[in-house]
Specification:
Layout: E1 3-8, H1 14-27, E2 32-36, H2 41-45, H3 53-62, E3 64-67, H4 81-88, E4 93-99, E5 112-118, E6 122-132, E7 135-141, H5 144-160, E8 165-170, H6 178-193, E9 198-203, H7 204-213, E10 220-223, H8 225-239, E11 248-251, E12 254-258, H9 276-293, H10 296-314, H11 328-337
Parallel strand pairs: 1-2, 1-3, 3-12, 5-10, 8-9, 8-10
Antiparallel strand pairs: 4-5, 4-11, 6-7, 11-12
The structure holds 1,4-dihydronicotinamide adenine dinucleotide.
Length: 339
């Protein structure tokens, strides 16, 4: 049976990398019927809301989406489409696997980290006030429910994927209540439900230094929203940059898959962006369909794509961000040739 899923091309480089990704998924034999919807600046330019009701309805109906990046202009009056989507569908666990890939030279060759970011609370709750002229305050929100469920998700992920350790990065020495809440909840979930998984916590500033010195000491990371955002990009830098890190936002009843990177306005419309991160996010989507709907043909398609892009990279077929020469569509062609 063919699944349905929503595809949102997004802004900037979004449409280019979406087209490349869908060509690869299709050529690999993925059985997904895509329902296209718009979001972001693209939707506004088409005369619609930044997050149109038709897009929300489609995600509600199909429960799974692959999304290109959406631009969030800095300044007043524009709420991030990404943050809105995560909150509306309660996609509380963002997962970003960070691994070395063949053919990409980096200072370390043993990076294998999964960043799990709490996706609905923290400073992204968007509670900001102008207290008086020249004084503003942003509220960092941490709830016991939110911290417990993402901690449980992280330990469960570690257990089911055969991972050994979960590390919480925090600043509970300063933010004793909010960061302290995530620490306490993680400790409780660990002690009561997952004692077989190793658990540690470390203050985030020192953790970042340790990360760039010896990343192999980390396995699964659990972070609140803002730290997860920042540390994901730091980890991307360890293995070749933003063009090679996929992502997924999971809730209890659906998921949206997207690359970690943004809409890259500096290179949009030039056919030079690396489509690999979105392609890898597409692979995660296919595996999710296989896990949740028993679609084995999609698991096989996912595996074929992984082997093919590994081979393409090994053969030196790379886009410019990886010191290669291929354009977006040429990289997709190179993957398709190796399927
Ligand atoms: P960005 O990730 O778009 O770009 C940072 C740098 O990485 C740029 O030099 C860009 O050219 C490069 N880059 C990113 N993806 C690439 C790819 N696939 N291939 C080659 N090079 C790539 O981050 P930036 O500039 O901070 O944000 C741009 C816009 O994207 C903003 O409006 C931001 O709010 C939005 N954004 C959206 C996200 C999403 O939709 N999930 C996530 C992050 C940012």
């Amino acid at each position: 049976m063919t699944s349905t899923a929503v595809i949102i091309p997004g802004d900037g480089i979004g449409p280019e990398i979406t087209e490349a990704t869908l060509r690869v998924l299709d050529a690999a034999g993925a059985e997904v019927e895509w329902v296209e919807r718009q979001a972001g600046v693209a939707a506004m330019e088409a005369g619609d809301a930044v997050l149109p009701e038709s897009t929300l309805e489609a995600i509600r109906a199909h429960k799974v989406a692959l999304k290109g990046p959406c631009t969030t202009p800095v300044g007043k009056g524009f709420r991030s489409v990404n943050v809105q989507l995560r909150k509306k569908f309660d996609l509380y666990a963002a997962v970003r696997p960070v691994r070395n890939l063949p053919g990409i030279d980096t200072p370390f060759d043993d990076v294998d980290i999964v960043v799990i970011r709490e996706n609905t609370e923290g400073l992204y709750a968007g509670v900001e006030n102008e207290i008086t002229d020249g004084v503003v305050a942003s509220m960092k929100v941490a709830t016991e429910k939110g911290c417990t469920r993402v901690a449980r998700w992280a330990f469960d992920y570690a257990k089911t994927r055969g991972r050994k350790k979960v590390t919480v990065f925090h600043k509970a020495n300063i933010m004793k209540l909010s960061d302290g809440m995530l620490l306490r909840c993680a400790e409780e979930v660990h002690a009561e439900e997952f004692p077989e998984i190793e658990y540690e916590n470390t203050i985030i500033d020192a953790a970042c230094m340790r990360m760039v010195q010896r990343p192999s000491q980390f396995d699964v990371l659990l972070l609140e929203n803002l730290y997860g955002d920042v540390v994901s990009d730091l980890c991307a830098g360890l293995v070749g940059g933003l063009g090679v890190i996929p992502g997924a936002n999971f809730g209890d009843d659906g998921a949206i898959f997207e690359a970690v990177h943004g809409s890259a306005p500096d290179i949009a419309g030039q056919n030079v962006a690396n489509p690999l991160a979105l392609m890898m996010s597409g692979v995660m989507l296919l595996n999710y369909l296989a896990d949740t709907r028993g679609e084995e043909q999609n698991r096989q398609a996912a595996q074929r794509i992984k082997v093919a892009y590994d081979q393409a990279l090994t053969d030196g077929k790379k886009t410019r961000d990886l010191a290669g020469t291929l354009n977006t569509d040429e990289f997709a062609d190179a993957v398709i040739e190796r399927l």
